[in-house]
Predict the structure.
Amino acid sequence: MKRKLYLIPLLLCLLQLTAFSQDNKSDTSKHAWKEMVFGRYAGAGSSKRPYVTWGGDGPLLSFSDEIKNAGVHVHNIPRFTFFFNVGHNLNYDFDRHFGIFTGLNLKNIGLITKDDKDSVKLKRRVYTVGIPLGFKIGDLRKGSFFFFAGGSYDLAFNYKEKKFIHGDKKDKFNEWFSDRTPLLMPSLFAGLRMSPGFGLKVQYYPKNFFNKEYKEVLIGGTATPYKDLDAKLFFVTLSYDFGRFPDHKHWKEMHERHKKHWKKNS
C-alpha cells in the first residue's frame, strides 16, 4: 500500500498534462511555452522514412516488489532520482498508427534497503546504457496519444553503494563495470505518450539486481555479501521520449512570434 502512495504524484502530473493538452488551440502564448518546455513532436510525415528523436526518463521511482535475504523479507524504500536519464531513439512508422523504434538510453536505477533493527540503510544504484526495441500504437502522426511497449538490454557500467547508520553516512564507494551486479540487465517496458510531450512508463527487470556469485576480498579471506539477496527491480517514470531534437533556430523564431503576440495584446 505504501508503494502505491508514491505513484500518486506521478498520476496527478499526468492528469495535469492532459488538461494542458486540451487548451484552446488559438492561444498562441500557451502553445509557445509548451514548445519551449517539451519541444515539437517528431512524428514522421507521409514519406515513411526513419527519423531520430530525443528524450529519456524524467522523475524516476525505482523499487523492488520484494527483497529477500536468505528467504527473509527486507524492508525496501522507493528510490527517487531525476538525473541522468536521457536517450535517443531511431523510429520507423509503417503508417500513422503503427511504428517501431530502437535507440540508446542512459538510466540511473537502484534500490534502498533498511534494517529497522540495526538502523542500517543501504543505497545501491547503477548507471546503465541500454538498447530498447519496441513498438508504438496510436496517433503517431501528431503524437496526441499513443501506447508503446517492448524490451531493452542494459549494460551496467557504474555501481555506487552508500551505508547509513542512524541516519549518518558511514561509508560509500563506486566501481566501474562492477561484478556486484550483472553486467547485462534485460528488461520489459510499457507506457503511453500524450500531448504536449510527457508520458508514463513502467519498466521491469526480471533478473536479480545482485550478483550472488560476487566475492569480496577481505583481510584474512573472502566474503560473498550478496549470495542470499534476491531483488527484482521495477521503476515508474514520467518519460519524455519521442521529442524532436532541440532546434535553436525554431526556438528563436517562436520567441519572436511570442513577443509580437504579447505586444499586440498589451
Observations:
- The domain at 2-265 is CATH 2.40.160.20 (Porin).
